[in-house]
Design goal:
Strands 6-5-9-8-7 form a 5-stranded antiparallel β-sheet, sandwiched between helices. A 4-stranded antiparallel β-sheet has the order 2-1-4-3, covered by helices on one side. Helix 17 crosses helix 18. It contains 20 helices and 11 strands. The protein is an alpha+beta fold. Helices cover 51% and strands 11% of the residues. The chain starts with a helix and ends in a 17-residue tail after the last helix. 33% of the residues are buried.
Length: 582
């Protein structure tokens, strides 16, 4: 009875049979049978006697679809003549025709309804999947979203694979899979003739019995049937989506249509992700080249920018794992922004004079050689122990913090004059005295101001590079990385909350790396010595107390995490939290 109910209501059929029975004067009962079983009778009290071989029975087929059919039968009463038989045959033909027309109309209506429902489902699938698959420009996110959509639709395949075309090698590489044991060699799928046929034709296929398909080499065992769909972009086949089952005959045409819709959505996203990651690689290479250009000018600071980037990301991630800072969590974009700011924070040093940037003594060697010649000349013409005097000058020239006694000695030398035939020559010129009489370091006020230009210079250089909108704070972080909480920093003497959190963090890791590495003017400090220096900066109100305290309390973990940053893809820095080995 199921096909009858599907295409025409039983009540409608009974009305047809009742009216037909009336037309023959109630002489001939009628019946409809399905698969040899009588299911509706009119004009008779029993379902018996309507078989095709029973006497007086005339039957005609009714077709419900390509598979199911039934019979409409009329049973003539004994004594009916040929006229009555002809009349019953005409009546039978008319009723069968009318019922068949109703069934065909219902089939057409249902076909249109099914097509409309299929289109609706396709549009609903597009409406739901487009935002999910197009949310990210990162390939891993796109692939995972496509896998999730396949599972959400509850397709019959309990196994799945996604292959993507490697733009460099032009070979298909496995990007994701589910359901397969680790021991299965899924890459063999990409070498099958079936895979290449679908990838080259750009048309998906269903193979419901792989053992009967000559294109299948059984390279991936445990699969009985599959649906394989190319992931197409406007330019090329970006990859291939495969859903499979251990059983045979599980996929239908509707599955292929929906999977094709998903793959078409994913095709644009995959193409965009390939382009974005290509731009990312180019951007990374350019920024890395800039950082290396800075480092190459000064071998003592080589690797500093990269270490600051790694430490900065590790610092932020460690805070994420601790619940964030003041309820602030750093997103994956925030971590990348911190990374790039670290790589580029000293780019402005490109514009600093090299003799200032790499200065490791108060007077340069050529200038000191001139001073030595003057001292020697003074010794030859007067009572002057030039060797001892020059040794003390040389010691002061290299000192970070010369003693008061040494500074007084330098001042006394500055008052001495070598009398010449025409002009008097000072033993030390004013400019030389300015350098030698510095109480700390080897930079004069002008040279220090030159160095302090580099944060603003970094911003000036980088503002012409079009950055991703997610990196809107990057230039600010770079400009502010030498600002201090008490307003003693540079270039803008900002205070407290005027300084971004990321800039305060950058200041901490910048100081830490600077003091733990060898420099022109000093050897590297140990970790414990660096901790003391940072604590002193906190006590003086220069660094953010909470941030510096967290950094120092978690220093060992942050340093270990920074090592992990080196081998983590820049696009997925947030995955550092999965590094349980740390």
């Amino acid at each position: 009875m199921t096909p009858l109910k599907k295409y025409i209501r039983p009540g409608v059929l009974r009305n047809f049979l009742r009216k037909a029975h009336v037309l023959v004067g109630g002489k001939c009962p009628l019946a409809i049978s399905y698969e040899g079983e009588v299911v509706i009778v009119e004009g008779a009290e029993s379902f018996e006697g309507f078989g095709e071989d029973d006497p007086g029975v005339i039957s005609s087929p009714i077709y419900f679809d390509e598979i199911h059919s039934g019979l409409l039968s009329v049973r003539m009463q004994p004594g009916c003549d040929s006229v009555d038989r002809n009349e019953c045959e005409r009546l039978l033909g008319f009723v069968v025709y009318s019922i068949q027309e109703l069934i065909d109309m219902e089939r057409a209506r249902r076909s249109l309804a099914d097509e409309a429902l299929s289109k609706y489902r396709e549009l609903a699938l597009l409406h739901r999947s487009v935002p999910k698959i197009n949310t990210s420009l990162h390939m891993r996110d796109v692939v995972n979203a496509l896998i999730d959509e396949c599972r959400l639709e509850n397709y019959p395949g309990e196994l799945g694979m996604i292959f993507l075309m490697d733009p460099t090698s032009m070979n298909y590489q496995l990007a994701a899979q589910f359901g397969f044991p680790l021991s299965v060699n899924l890459r063999a799928m990409a070498s099958s003739n079936l895979f290449h046929a679908v990838a080259s034709s750009g048309k998906g296929e269903i193979v419901n019995n792989l053992s009967r398909d000559p294109r299948w080499s059984d390279g991936v065992r445990g699969m009985g049937s599959l649906a394989i769909v190319p992931i197409i972009s406007p330019n090329r086949c970006e990859g291939v989506l495969v859903l499979a089952s251990e059983n045979t005959g599980v996929f239908e045409a509707a599955h292929l249509r929906n999977l094709t819709t998903l793959a078409s959505v994913a095709g644009l996203s995959v193409s965009n992700a390939f382009n974005f990651e290509g731009v990312q690689r180019l951007m990374n290479a350019i920024l890395q080249a800039l950082a290396e250009a800075i480092d190459s000018r000064d071998p003592y600071t080589a690797g500093h920018s990269e270490r600051v980037a790694h430490l900065g990301v590790a610092f932020a991630q460690a805070m994420n794992e601790n619940g964030g800072h003041e309820d602030r969590m750093f997103s994956n974009e925030d971590l990348r922004e911190i990374y790039y700011a670290g790589i580029l924070h000293d780019v402005g040093k490109i514009g600093i004079k090299e003799e200032v940037l790499t200065k490791n003594t108060r007077l340069s060697k050529p200038r000191l050689d001139v001073v030595r010649a003057r001292f020697q000349l003074m010794g030859e013409f007067g009572d002057f122990d030039w060797v001892q005097a020059f040794e003390r000058v040389t010691a002061v020239n290299k000192a970070m913090t010369p003693s008061e006694e040494d500074l007084l000695f330098i001042k006394s030398l500055g008052k001495q004059v070598l009398h010449g035939s025409e002009n008097d020559i000072p033993l030390l010129y004013e400019e030389e005295l300015e350098h030698l009489l510095l109480t700390y370091g080897n930079l004069t006020q002008d040279e220090r101001r030159e160095i302090q230009r580099h944060p603003a210079e970094s911003e000036r250089i980088l503002q012409h590079i079009p950055m991703h909108e997610n990196y809107s704070n990057m230039l600010t972080i770079i400009r502010q990385h030498h600002e201090r909480m008490d307003g003693s920093g540079y270039p803008d003497q900002l205070r407290g909350d005027e300084i971004l959190i990321q800039s305060r963090m950058m200041a901490i890791v910048d100081i830490y790396d600077a003091v733990t590495q060898d420099r022109h003017y000093k050897p590297a400090f140990t970790r414990s010595e660096a901790v003391k220096i940072l604590n002193l900066e906190v006590e003086e109100g220069k660094l953010d107390v909470d941030l510096a305290t967290f950094f120092l309390e978690n220093l060992e973990y942050i340093e270990a995490l920074s090592e992990r940053v080196k081998v983590t893809r820049i696009s997925h820095l947030s995955e550092l939290s999965e590094c349980a080995s740390l």
